[in-house]
Amino acid sequence: MIIPCFQFIYEEELFCGAVYENLNLALNKPTWQANQYRPGNSLFHSSNAVDGLKSNLSGRGGQCTLSSGEHRTATWWVNLTSVYSIHDIRIYHRNDNNKLAYSTAVLLLFLGFSVYVSNTTNRLHGYLCFHDTNFTKSTIPAVVNIPCIIHGQYVIYYNERLSKVKYPDGYSKKAFNDICEVEVYDCRTGYYGPNCSLPCPDNCRFCHVETGECQCCEPGYQGYQCEIECKKEKLQHDLANLERAYIALSTEEGTVWRFRFYSTLGAVFVSVTVNTVFIIIICLKWKRRETKVPPITKEFCTPVQCEANNIYENIPGEYQELQKLGESSHYDAMQQKDG
Questions:
Q1: Same structural domain for residues 256 and 296?
Q2: 64-97 pLDDT per residue, tens
Q3: Is 11 a residue whose pLDDT tops 80?
């Protein structure tokens, strides 16, 4: 299935021979979190999780973002500033640089966390890459690597401790998003494979980073492998319609265009309605004319019909007398001739 294309803006691309070196797409990108610990204090700011620093993973080392820990939900996200072909996501949780504390007190804050990729800041509009349902405070790793083959712009870290929900033993009472670094890696547009070194099919803008299946064609091409060239006339027509629609929505010229469009549409509607009514009236009159039975008259009625309609009652007496006289005279003439 071919999905809609997006405009891609990539950072500097690094190559090592024929192998593409993955970039950390999240590095120094815009971030946000719902409830920061000590708001306004840069030691705990959301941007610390994308500063590229991982040498001090303690809560007060200035390289981690901390949440207040007073709420039942915790949300943090990074805006990659464009839609990318994401391959995997790497998360460094806070560990306070102390293995004992890390294993006994801190890790329980992260149990049950989820990671989403979305094209908006709403996680429910996106794709769930990972939801922890198996880790315990003794098994969760310090660094979690999450494969997530998807296209998206926002990477969202989420955790919750909802009321009236029974969580496994060892979970914290409130939700936290204490993370020290989030790294997002991709394949360069037009390549796929384990080392992102295999080219996508011709005329394919980007393909599945593992299988190479085309997911978005270059303009002017279509088909599962972008092998079908669109007709130039149709493409130009579609582009012209899109441009006109944009003008209609965003400029003063669009106001005139909308007025003309709706005026023409209204005139066509009135014309069609009037003609339809006229045709219906003509058809009804014609139908009545065909089904109307002509009245029975004296010239065309049979004696039975005339008797049924009492026509004889209206014949003048003089006519009856003349008829009788005529019959008698004719008989006499015949008798004389025979004689």
A1: no
A2: 999 998 999 999 999 999 988 888 999 999 888 8
A3: no
* Residue 285 belongs to some domain of the structure: no
Q: Is 86 within the bounds of a domain? A: yes
Tokens of 32: 């946000």
- Report the pLDDT averaged over residues 150-159: 95
pLDDT recorded at residue 274: 82
241 and 150 belong to one structural domain: no
Q: Do residue 27 and residue 169 come from a single domain?
A: yes
Is residue 321's pLDDT more than 80?
Answer: no
Residue 75 lies in a domain: yes
Same domain, 36 and 162: yes
Cα 281 to chain center, whole Å?
Answer: 45
Same-domain status, 166 and 100: yes
Q: Give pTM, 2 decimals.
A: 0.57
Q: For residue 303, what pLDDT band results from cuts at 50, 70 and 90?
A: low
Check: CB of residue 178 under 8 Å from CB of residue 194. no
pLDDT averaged over every residue in the chain: 76
**DSSP label of 312:** G
b (16+ CB within 10 A) / e for 184-203: bbbbbbbbbbeebbeebbeb
Provide the residue range defining the domain that includes 260: 237-266
Cα(183)–Cα(24) distance, integer angstroms:
6
168, two tokens: 């496994």
Residue 217 falls within a domain, yes or no?
Answer: no
Query: Does residue 178 sit in helix, strand or coil?
Result: coil
Do residues 179 and 244 share a domain? Answer: no
The DSSP letter of residue 309 is T
- 145 and 82 housed in the same domain: yes
Q: What share of the chain is helix, strand, coil (3-state, %, to 5)?
A: 35, 25, 40
CB 146 within 8 A of CB 129: yes
How far is the CA of 24 from the CAs of 4, 100, 146, 181, in angstroms? 25, 30, 14, 11
Per-residue confidence at 217, pLDDT binned at 50, 70, 90? confident
Return the closest-CA partner of residue 150 out of 132, 165, 164, 129: 129
pLDDT at residue 290 in the model: 60
